[in-house]
Amino acid sequence: MNNPKRVLLLGAGGMGMAPLALYLHGAGVQVEAYDDRFREPLRSHLQSAGIDVLSESTPLNKPDCVIRSSAIPLNNKGVQGWVAQNIPVYQRGEFLARFTVKKKFLAVVGSHGKTSTTGMLCWALDQVGFQFSYLVGGMFTDNQLPSGRYVKESWVICEVDESDGTIDYFTPSVTLALNCDWDHVDQYDSKDSMGETFRTLFSRTTSSIITPTNSELSEWAKLENESLLSTFDLKSEPSAFLENNIAAVVAAGKVLEVDLSTLDYSKFPGIERRQSILHQSPTRTIVEDYAHHPTEINAFLSRRRLVLPQHSLQVVFQPHRFSRTQALAQNFAEELSQADDLHLLPTYAAFEEFDPAGSVESLVGYLPPRLREHTNIFSDFTQLCDELGPTPLENKKDQILFVGAGDLEKWAHGFSAWEKAKGNKLDAFSYYLEKKLSKSTILRSYEPLANKTTIGVGGSARWYAEPAHSEDLRSLVEACKLFNIPRAMMGRGSNLIVPDDGFGGLVLRLRGKFWKEITFRAEESLVVGAGARLNEICSFACLNGLKGFEFLEGIPGTLGGALRMNAGAMGWETFDLVEWVSFLLPDGSIREILGTDLNVGYRYCREAFDGIALRAKLKSEGKSDHRAIRKAIEKLAKRRRSSQPREASAGCIFRNPEDVSAGFLIEDSGLKGEREGGAVISNQHANFILNQGGATADEVISLIQRVRARIKESKGLILEPEVTLMGKSWNEYLS
Ligand code: FAD
Question: What is the mean pLDDT of residues 444-468?
Fold first, then answer.
């Protein structure tokens, strides 16, 4: 493989790929990184390091090669697109092995503790001023060191993962092997086959093999190449793993000819999700750990018991992968029996198909009766919070341990936010989001909304956010789901009435550069962010000589609102333009859906009710001279000016019944000019209600009720509102 100049990383938000992005960027490679599930603060770290973080999987430039995370299979549609273009696609491990083949490479391997040991080794080497490159599969808790770094002509320190089989590509100078327990049962059918992988790695190692003294690893190393072997002593009790990590680190230091034995390891900041203390008070401690194998669970629980012997041990466990849970169910149950109380979450699939044989229920039968009778399985976070209960009093201390490698990180952080807010669900939501959002995202409490709508009525939002990008939007949406908090979208607020009592949940508004982007595509189309104003799209298209966007002039909304409402004017509708829309769906996934596959009708798009429109590709009717387009726009604007009032309103209040306009029916029923407080039916366009100063939402709504009743009475027709009511259904108000 020739060293590439430009690479595309797919799945770059994972902790295998992100350090690789940093390492390659440091090596002078132009890196474009894509993930549909990026998280903060990782995304910001990559961006501030100078890496191009993409919002779409299509890079700005054609890459020399594509590197995919093991979580993205080769048959993935996006990956196959690159294969079809003859762009080489590598799995992360394979690429890294090839890229570093000529470098002095220290590989940290083993079934458990690779990330903690590699992190500690890198921290220690950094402390003594050793110059080296590294990749660590986790983030340092104090963020002082990045998770990946490149230093020219130096050693590369890296954990090498056996789970996806790419370990077979590596030929390290030094191998530091920590342990070998049967795991990754989809890849290895027995402990022997896993051991064989480590043995063959030893046979390829060129200068040193470091293993625990008198272990099976040292025996295998002797068989392969005894002259390279050096060892370190391990304490046998499982709770001694920190001491054992230090022993391994010091032994690696010796091989690198650096003395790491005198450092104060209590200053090691630790790696996130590795025994991280999330909250501590005199009576309650909350700890999170990535343990997902019985051996790791035993080590973690027995250590916590030693650290706080007076605290009851409350364990929240989420099994990781159906295959592992099925194969090791009895061992899991045995180790989890150390808990005083056990709380289970459903098995985290990690890309596996659902398999009942590996579901969390399969563990319960192996638990001792003491636990079996009281252990519940939770899929609702607030129920778990209720079960774990409020902070215990003086004489009843506890430590709550969140254990697993899946997504229980959300639950752990959610619960510690809950604890910090002293069980107050409302503030826990803000605490939880504090560290999950990038700095440029706005999150406020009790935000007035009237000034954000065109009609200018209504109360405040309990929470209000302007996410800086899709990942923060997703974090906000996920937090709502976790805490059971309702959410509502708001665009320009030009077809929206906010009730006077406001909205008790989170209001989301897509404002700022990221959401307003309009880019020109070769096929005479535009890709437009959902926060772009319709008149900006119209002007951009005109400037670029693209026909078909003229009707957007004068509709005062954003693209997001126009997609949800299928806004239209003068015979055209928004969906006449749409090729595809990218949505954030309620399950947290982002999907591009073709316009032809969407359920769209007069003033609605069903997918935008639950989903959030993020951006869309809009196709033109072809090219034309921009002066001709401008003329057409001016003609439409003139018509609009003559027919629509300019005062504060929410646009058309009612949908047009079939074959007749709502405005005509209202005018014909003599309702023009009728008033309720500051709210008045427009004399110019009877389907508009104007706020002539100081109107309330209640006044607007009672005028709507009056119009509806009068039309029913005079015309025998029921008018349905077009305008949306934030957080409420019109059924509550209209009989
Ligand atoms: P908002 O009013 O803020 O929201 C409308 C709905 O869309 C809400 O339910 C909201 O939750 C949802 N929403 C907002 N963003 C998103 C998103 N990203 N994803 C999913 N849902 C979202 N309409 C016409 O069709 N034709 C007209 O000619 C017209 N003329 C108007 C003239 C005036 C003076 C006014 C005040 C309004 C007019 N309208 C018209 C109504 C309005 O401008 C459109 O419906 C517009 O598309 C609404 O966009 P918005 O950004 O203001 O959405």
Answer: 97
